[in-house]
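Re: [ENG-882] Designed sequences occasionally contain unexpected residues at chain ends

Forwarding the minimal case from QA. Structure tokens:
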């Protein structure tokens, strides 16, 4: 490794300060000597009368005064120098950057693998010099401190890949200087490219550099220190030099505290496949323990493939883009044993795509897969398949699992995009299968997997379908592509997975002669006798096969009774429906949000205000001791997903005056959150500390609805928050606002907004006026259960067209769709 310039710099600076002090002291001594000399001369030449005068000057008092003045000057001088060279330096922040670029047309020497080799030292000194010159000639010259070459590696594109660190020193007064784009732009702009030869290789002070390969990211100081420490026993280079051979990776950590790096390097022309078979960690918050896999040899943020922060016992594997991969393992010293098991191997680069001639029949017959499936694919890949069906009457059907295609809009696609016979689609992940039909006998499919992280493996079943009749007679054709029996249309159950079978239905008809479990949920087991023969309220607590309208007891048996949860009556045989019911009650008995009024103190004890970097940003709801529920979109941007930047204000009435404030330990954003259409807009937050029980009059959890919650349009609920009172306001109210809104029929909501998924619910007034607005996001839509009087979190403020506009109700995340997800992630949720 090249020398660590920072340490050198600071040492030289220290030397400077010490020697400057001694210089000044010796200067003073010289002056004194000169004075004495002059004094001696004078002594010899002046008459005796003057000697007597001098004797009087050198009295003891004068000597003491002179000595004090001298000491004072020396102390002053020392302090000034100390301040200039040591104390003032502490006002500067060091900022660390990690980056890489490819030097083209240069042969990689095997000696570069050895950091102590002459070849490595000489090459890295040259490269360091070039990087330093780039920044010293730039507007950041005063801030730039040094660069340090971390690795020189061979790679599948040829030339040498340079992994490097950079350190900038920024005065604290300049605030958070971390303009990653600026630092990156300085580097890229220094590369002289020529339009003539049309390659991405240009010249950086004479060095042939591939401009497309340049990546520079802000890095963690702790990563820089761990990776560059001279005596580090925690940076390991591991080589996979026999293709196909499994090299074991058993990292057992009992006492190590800090970050260790494992660099996995494969033979040229190969990529690394890393398989993690088990992870034992203590914490689950990514702060104390984490395993991060990078598609680079340095911890470069934009090259993260995957993060593992909690124990895992199933196998998962990743493939690198190039012939290397980095594992960063962070661990804090705790009691429990931590272990990571797995192996890595060098595998050949995999091509995907091909020509497929389908058989002369309808039905699915084969599967196409993303590259390296079932491993996660590298973030970037391109596959091309060409399909030909045997007849003009047969089109191509594609079944996607937990994935769907949507026509591409003007924005780009973040989860892969598809070009199918000249049409462009964005792909996105969701929790059910979809079928996509291409009404042509010749189908050209191009798949570009431009993921931010490693691409989830995709398997797509293909087969022919009859272009003139997608679903057989007697079947309803869902918008998800599924075919369901016609009888299931408008039965109150979402059989299509996108509710397309339940939209545009007339008011449900009673079917009093059918058994209760086949009746419409609008009537069945809702506590109201709708049928004269009482058939709609019969056998409601008997175990029946589970479905989307049944309540699941803890013993996994299902009952039909609606709102069985916490209604004060034991309905499940195991009594689980009445367990954990310390939720949804408020001490406050009385009875801006747009069109809202001031709430009473303690009226909404589950309401939370989330502050980001000191500013109120979103709302949230308390759902159990130490856990909150909010909207995923509050945490979407890179910066916003950092839990350390957030604080939760609980038991608060007037903004900023909370009874309890906690840091956030962990943010779990739903894995299918879709920033384009706000689908799966939900996030769980774990608090760092929990409030004392003495605050229970102002802090209470709200109940989570059961998965089978049936939503009745027109039902009145309350939305609360410190968001804007008008769309045009430029500041938020200080007192918590509340507004009563009505749940809106899903078909009407669909007609208004178009894309409303089953994970959304609309609420507001069609006349407008009462609505959530900017700043209310993530906050609760609270609905009171008629029987028990308990409050349930029916919705989470998500989005809307403006605020309080007529015919545009607010859109909320439908919490009942996430009950199993919440239960999986939050221990003992109420
Ligand atoms: C927001 O920006 C927001 N009218 C939240 C809700 C609504 C609009 C905007 C619904 O946080």
């Amino acid at each position: 490794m090249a020398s660590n310039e920072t340490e050198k710099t600071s040492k030289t600076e220290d030397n400077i300060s010490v020697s400057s002090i001694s210089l000044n002291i010796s200067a003073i001594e010289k002056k004194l000597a000169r004075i004495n000399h002059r004094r001696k001369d004078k002594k010899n030449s002046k008459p005796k009368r003057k000697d007597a005068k001098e004797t009087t000057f050198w009295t003891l008092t004068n000597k003491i005064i002179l000595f004090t003045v001298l000491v004072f000057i020396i102390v002053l001088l020392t302090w000034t120098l100390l301040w200039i060279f040591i104390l003032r330096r502490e006002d500067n922040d060091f900022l660390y950057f990690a980056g890489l670029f490819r030097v083209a047309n240069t042969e990689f020497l095997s000696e570069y693998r050895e950091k102590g080799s002459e070849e490595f030292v000489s090459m890295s000194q040259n490269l360091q010099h070039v990087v330093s010159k780039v920044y010293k000639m730039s507007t950041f010259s005063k801030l730039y401190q040094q660069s340090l070459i971390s690795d020189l590696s061979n790679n599948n594109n040829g030339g040498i890949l340079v992994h490097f660190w950079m350190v900038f020193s920024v005065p604290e007064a300049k605030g958070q200087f971390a303009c990653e784009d600026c630092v990156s732009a300085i580097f890229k702009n220094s590369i002289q490219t020529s339009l003539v030869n049309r390659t991405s290789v240009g010249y950086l002070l004479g060095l042939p550099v591939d401009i497309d390969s340049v990546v520079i990211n802000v890095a963690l100081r702790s990563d820089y220190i761990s990776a560059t420490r001279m005596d580090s026993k925690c940076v390991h280079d591991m080589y996979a030099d026999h293709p196909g051979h499994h090299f074991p990776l058993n990292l057992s950590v009992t006492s190590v505290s800090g970050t260790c790096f494992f660099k996995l390097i494969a033979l040229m022309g190969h990529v690394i496949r890393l398989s993690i078979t088990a992870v034992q960690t203590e914490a689950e918050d990514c702060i104390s323990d984490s395993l991060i896999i990078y598609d680079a040899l340095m911890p470069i943020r934009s090259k993260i493939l995957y993060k593992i922060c909690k124990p895992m016992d199933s196998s998962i594997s990743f493939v690198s883009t190039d012939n290397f991969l980095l594992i960063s393992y962070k661990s804090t010293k705790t009691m429990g044993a931590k272990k990571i098991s797995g192996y890595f191997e060098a595998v050949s680069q995999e091509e995907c795509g091909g020509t497929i001639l389908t058989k002369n029949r309808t039905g699915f017959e084969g599967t196409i897969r993303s590259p390296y499936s079932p491993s996660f694919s590298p973030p970037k890949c391109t596959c091309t398949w060409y399909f030909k069906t045997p007849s003009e009457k047969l089109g191509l059907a594609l079944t996607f699992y937990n994935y769907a295609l949507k026509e591409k809009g003007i924005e780009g696609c973040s989860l892969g995009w598809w070009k199918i016979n000249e049409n462009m689609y964005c792909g996105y992940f969701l929790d059910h299968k979809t079928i996509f039909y291409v009404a042509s006998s010749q189908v050209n499919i191009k798949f570009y997997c431009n993921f931010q992280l490693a691409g989830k493996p995709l398997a797509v079943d293909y087969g022919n379908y009859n272009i003139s009749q997608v679903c057989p007679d007697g079947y309803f054709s869902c918008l998800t592509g599924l075919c369901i029996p016609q009888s299931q249309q408008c039965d109150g159950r979402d059989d299509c997975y996108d509710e397309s079978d339940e939209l545009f239905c007339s008011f449900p008809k009673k079917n009093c002669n059918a058994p209760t479990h086949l009746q419409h949920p609008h009537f069945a087991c809702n506590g109201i006798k709708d049928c004269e023969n009482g058939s709609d309220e019969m056998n409601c607590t008997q175990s029946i096969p589970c479905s989307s309208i049944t309540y699941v007891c803890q013993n996994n048996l299902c009952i039909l009774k609606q709102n069985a949860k916490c209604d004060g009556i034991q309905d499940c045989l195991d009594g689980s429906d009445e367990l954990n019911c310390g939720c949804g009650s408020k001490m406050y008995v009385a009875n801006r949000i747009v069109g809202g009024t001031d709430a009473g103190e303690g009226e909404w004890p589950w309401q939370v205000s989330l502050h980001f970097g000191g500013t109120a940003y979103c709302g949230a709801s308390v759902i159990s001791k130490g856990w909150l529920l909010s909207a995923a979109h509050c945490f979407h941007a890179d910066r916003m997903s950092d839990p350390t930047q957030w604080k939760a204000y609980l038991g608060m009435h007037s903004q900023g005056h909370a009874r309890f404030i906690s840091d956030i330990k962990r943010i779990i954003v739903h894995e299918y959150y879709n920033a384009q259409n706000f689908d799966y807009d939900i996030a769980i937050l774990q608090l760092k500390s929990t409030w004392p029980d003495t605050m229970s009059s102002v802090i209470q959890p709200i109940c989570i609805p059961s998965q089978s919650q049936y939503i009745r349009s027109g039902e009145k609920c309350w939305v609360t928050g410190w968001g804007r009172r008008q769309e045009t306001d430029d500041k938020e109210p200080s007192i918590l606002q509340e507004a009563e809104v009505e749940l809106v029929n899903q078909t009407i909501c669909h007609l208004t907004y178009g894309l409303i998924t089953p994970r959304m619910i609309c609420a507001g007034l069609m006349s407008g006026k009462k609505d959530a607005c900017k700043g209310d996001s993530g906050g609760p839509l609270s609905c009171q259960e008629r029987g028990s009087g308990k409050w349930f979190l029916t919705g989470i403020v998500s989005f809307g067209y403006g605020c309080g506009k007529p015919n545009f109700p607010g859109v909320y995340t439908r919490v009942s769709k996430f009950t199993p997800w919440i239960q999986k992630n939050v221990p003992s949720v109420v």
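QA comment: On inspection the terminal residues look reasonable. DSSP finds eight helices and 41 strands in the chain. Proposing we downgrade this to a documentation issue.
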